[in-house]
Amino acid sequence: MNSPRTEGPGRRLTLDEYLQDFDRHFWNSGPEGFWKLERQQTFQEPGVESWEAFHQGHWDESLALIESQRGHYEAYFRRIAGSGFALHRVRCVEEPVSPYLQWELHLLRLKAEYGEDTRVLLGDGIGRYEDGRPLAEIIVLGSSVMYEIVYDDEGKLAGGIRFDDPGEVSRCRGAIQEMHRSGEPLADYFARRVAPLPPPVVGGEHV
Prior knowledge:
Layout: E1 11-13, H1 15-26, E2 34-38, H2 49-55, H3 59-67, H4 70-82, E3 87-93, H5 99-113, E4 117-122, H6 123-130, E5 137-141, E6 145-151, E7 157-163, H7 166-182, E8 184-185, H8 186-194, E9 201-202, E10 205-206
Parallel strand pairs: 2-3, 3-4
Antiparallel strand pairs: 1-7, 2-5, 4-8, 5-6, 6-7, 9-10
């Protein structure tokens, strides 16, 4: 079993540096594609309209705002396909599903409808890779660039650590691919475990 943990020296990037660097390399991911490992169960996403509505307790509005993004994601994934690569994601899920994750899985389901290949990894499937320490959030772009994503104590994006060693990039990509193969397709998990859920509880109140 391969480990998806980053090793060796990496270069720490501020938030602005990370966003600029990521955008520069994303569209050149090539046939190896984009692979993301997402482990944390809650994040803060200020500025994202549907997340803001969810966070403020407006669940129906939040879902409507996700739905309103269909045109955007249709065009976005058409551009990605035209650029010769595909997006793959492993979404680790602890149950019971956190309020944030309930919101995010609705968004990921929409992305999956337009081409993102997401699989869900649960419980024991996650534990096989963790050896007592939670996994990091990792993005691999193609064959030459990888980032460990950095968040602040509130769960807001704060930057990244860039890794360039081809062997390290290949090893982590292979580990994420292994996790992906063992996961459950998002559509199946969503229908089975997310669709039946009542509106999430945020701050002690139903959204």
